[in-house]
Batch of 2 targets.
Target 1
Amino acid sequence: MKVLLVDDEKEFVSALAERLSFRGVDAHWTVSGEEALKMAKDGQYDLAVLDVKMPGVGGIELRKRLHEMQPGMRFIFLTGHGSQEDFKVGSEEASFYLAKPLKIEELMEKIRETLNR
Amino acid sequence: MSERFGSFIKTLRSRLIALYRPPFWVDRARRYCYIWAVSVSLLAVVSLMPLTLMVLYVYDSSQEAIYKENVLRILRLTSNTRRTVTSFLEQRLNALRFTAHVESYSYLEQNDHLAGVLRNLKYGFGSIVDLGLINAAGVQVAYAGPFDLKGKDYGGQEWFEKTLEESAYISDIFLGYRGVPHQIVAVKSTNEQGEAFVLRASLDMESLSEILHSLELSERSVSFIINREGIVQTPSRRYGNPLEKVCCIPVPEYAEHTQIFEAKGEQGQPLMVGYAYIANSPFILLLVKEKSEIMQNWYGLRKNLIIFFSGSFVVIFLVFYVIPTYIIQSLYEAEQTHARAIQRLEETARLASLGRLAAGVAHEINNPLAIINEKAGLVKDLIIFKEEYKHDKKLERLIDSVLESVERCGAITKQLLGFARHTEVSVSTVPVRKIIRDVLSFLEKEASYRNITLNLEIPDDLPPLVTDRGKVQQIFLNLINNAFQAVGDGGRIDIVGRRVDGGKIAVRVSDNGCGISDENLQKIFEPFFSTKKDSGGTGLGLSITYGLVQRLGGQIAAESELGKGTTFTVTLPVETKEVRDEGLTCG
């Protein structure tokens, strides 16, 4: 499975990608929405893990555009705000959300769940 | 209707009690007590002083006026009576003078002539009993009257000597030869040979008594005559029998005109005595009145004055007590309400800004925390997945410790964000009993394991809340969770709901746990304040609960006693109308 990780914190997203790789996930990462769109042009992804708040193209906007480009792509949102109630999440906007700091097992489970839908 | 009347009576009662024991007095609000005392006493003095002065003035002046009027009346009456008595005696004396002057001695010397004269005098003046002619030697040479007194010798007797000396004489009352109280009047004249003789008449006492009796005085007043030695001459009722010493009243000093003095009666009752010396006689006329009688009018007036004054005093005092008390009470209540509102506002503002700060900090911390988490996680992954690190147990323990700490920090930042989070309230109908039962279902296992008694009392008629179910659930979950932590094994938790005024319901969550000290009780709603830090408390549970209750337009209050337990009371409006949005905007 091929996963795209987008978060403006490079240290976070790179470490997360490496940890996912240990768990058999083909994880690619980037620190901006624009870069992510480029990457999506070049290759197919099964799932995108997006930070909600990013400079430039934010997570919500990015989800829309990626969805347009690859309608089969699934999404998981990450937020620094602690819980689902911290931002308005429309039913179609996110398949799942997760609060930072996250537990890798939880993320793995969500990835599996999302892809099995 | 009866409910409304009942609440009206209740309000009235509390208002009346408030007037009697003003709360600012009970609370010892010194400034208000001072203002109250000054205004009540000033108003009372300003209004009661003129009234008191006026009443005192009227009291004094009317008493004096009535007294003076009575003094004048007694003086007038005494003077008039003196004139009557004087004229009575003078008339008799002049009649004798006239007789002695007109009739010759030799004519009068004959008894039948003298009897004729007596008849005429009796006819003309009355009250003359007998008539006697006494020669210069003092022998009664002729006598006309009911007794046999011819030939009696009066020579050397005081009255006879005085008559010869002063040419006229009026005696006081005496018994004399006849043994009957009588009075004599006598005049001196000279016969054809130039020898002196005396014409003497006895007067009965009835005429004089009748003159005094005719004054028609009241029961307790009397007019009578005494002589200069104080011997009673005419009947005096209670001041001594005729020819005895006058009782109680001293013999007044000589005065030319009518006078008045005060004395005390037999029983010590004050008397007013008018007196006049009767000229050319030994008589003193007394007019005695009891003071209580003459001041009768005054007593009536005084009674009315006292009733008027007492009534006015009470009414004025009540008015000037009630009005300032009511006004100051209202001011005090207004200030209290204002102070409470300010305090609430300050508290809300403080908590809101603390919330904002906390959320900001939490958000900022979350990102580096996430990096630490991932980096540490990666190190752990390396230990797990890479052969070269696999056996370094110490490194693994260290990393586990880092990850645990990150997890704890994460829990704190999540709660911090929860404390200040900004969400719409989604309103639905929520039965209170159901929601609390749901909360309890999470804790039932722990309750049975720890043998904790749960007592739920929610009346059937308690209206359902139209509010945010999730928030209400969290409020009760936090409170009941707290109670679970406070009670020991075998403890008791009571959850009691009831309806309160103003379309609200109140739910009390009480435990019989360790309780909270007064000092701590004031801080329990502040973020990060915790008494359970050692056992992992973050100090955010109650501040989150506070924020949620506020957002639903309700109030939360805590009471506690160390060692006895704690009660939290949440009051929520049945229908949530106002939602307070003071948290962060999404970011």
Target 2
Amino acid sequence: MESVIFDLEKATVREVNQFLHGAPETLEGRQVTVVSPNGAHNLAVGVDAPVQVLIDGHAGYYAGGMNKHATIIVEGSAGTGVAENMMSGKVHVKGFASNGAGASAHGGLLVIDGDAGLRCGISLKGGDIVVGGSVGSFSAFMAQAGRMVICGDAGDALGDSLYEAVLYVRGSVKSLGADARYEEMTDADVSTVRDLLKAAGLNHDPMSFRRIASARTLYHWNADANQEY
Amino acid sequence: MEAKPVHFARLQQEESAGYDRSTIDYIHTAAQRGLYEIRGLGAKRKVPHFDDLLFLGASLSRYPLEGYREKCATRTVLGTRFAKKPIVLDIPITIAGMSFGALSANVKEALGQAATAMGTSTTTGDGGMTQEERRSSKTLVYQCLPSRYGWNPDDVRRADAIEIVIGQGAKPGGGGMLLGQKVNPRVAAMRTLPAGIDQRSASRHPDWTGPDDLLIKIQELREITDWEKPIYVKVGATRTFNDVKLAVHAGADVVVIDGMQGGTAATQTCFIENVGIPTLAAVRQAVDALEDLNMKGQVQLIVSGGIRTGADIAKALAMGADAVAIGQGMLMALGCNSDTYFQNGGLHSAAVDYAALGTSAGFCHHCHTGKCPVGVTTQDTLLEQRVQPEEGSRRVRNYLKTLNMELTTIARACGKQNVHHLEPEDLVALTVEAAAMARVPLAGTSWIPGLT
């Protein structure tokens, strides 16, 4: 596989992204490595090709933002909004992720080996997120579609105002948000969790997860839901 | 002898100012339903507005241009600060962001066609970009909203400019609603929601909080678009001076200020009428902010919220706006609040349909119901046929043309060869309030409240 290396001690983020916005047929199957990222923001954003990107260190905000098709690996930790609005492909954070990880992702898979901050999976629209550690408060807020697997614990108000996204949690949940509820794990759920854990390279018993989904009491605006909206 | 109370005949029918019939109706309804009202369009209360300003046409001390023949340029360029491809418009009158969902696909197509014919831009809304509007619009501004409904990188790349919406004049600080009757399968699919649910839009963006984050978000969008497309930042008018400064610091190419008269598809009435400041007050603050940063001319200002006429536009430009955006006026050009609608080659009365909503033409604000009697704000398969793209486009085109003719007529009368040369010195105010807000002298005096 042909490899291209960008050293951010010398090259700019602009040059990295410009290269990654090249014709998909020229990028397909190539390996692009970004060394000395030093927490730079907006690395590998808007990629639209099946290219492999390795960020060899910590990334700043929005690493892999709006990704389509690419596989992006962050060897260190990632800042706010990693893989935000991802459409397809995969983003894998080997360290921790800050706030809003996977926000409004429509597709693809986001894997975070460590913990994720506040609002992980907020406004999720079809993507899958697997967090090896714990997630902060207000995670999956208004999540509309897609799945989240949380291997550790969850903070306050998990799944607040949830729509059709489904959450699976292995550890403790400090509190559920409005309209989120625990539901029975079906065989299909167990299978889903098993597949997502496998895709993320994590080894847990799928039966040890609990399912959280929307009670759908806020789908229609009415006076009975006083102060819940 | 027993004293009888005295009744004065006229006073028996005197309405209370504080508890007038509207207020009593509000309390009765609230007491019955336990739910606040949601409605469409904008503030109905009277607030200081461009109506309260007048132009000082040329006379002996100023030399006018011949009203119909002499050149008066209207070309408008937006996004000159960072974007490689700024937006170049023939006229400074743009079409404001309105969602597919709130409006039908026919309406979006009509707006796009008219904007293209007149050399101006139109704007998407909450709910994403439709093929119809992209196809019909030469210049299309793509909104990035807190909900991120339908937001995707392909449309980012297809857009001509990106508008990050922080807030809306009708509801600064609040998210909107799209009630279930308008969430048909196509709208639902674009928003990744179940059809028929009452959809609530978030009030905050999911992946950034505050101006420091916004700076990085803007840079992300610039990176994704290879620094080609202008980035607009739209704010609802509240603390406008500070908001504009922060938007400029965050890297906006263009700032859009939407005053409290701005419309909405569906928002709480208490919000529409009580949150935000009038457009007139906001323009002054926005221009002050740009001047304070020495960014006037580098960052362009678009003003919206209750702009209806060419005179309104001329006044906004004279106060320092580079362009305006119009939403409700465009809907009215398409037939909103008209007695009739045009279908199958003829006009038909919409009176029965207005009556079914408990209203009539001239008073209707029932965009939220999806039962628009003239087919503008609906997803109903029958009602939406009441606006056809061709006829709708013709009307919007004529409206835009009229606005531009009025604008240039006034500019010429003020001696300007370019509408962008209109200036505050051309204006006076009719009321003390307008003089203070716009910071122009009260007519016939040199008094600017708070300044002179």
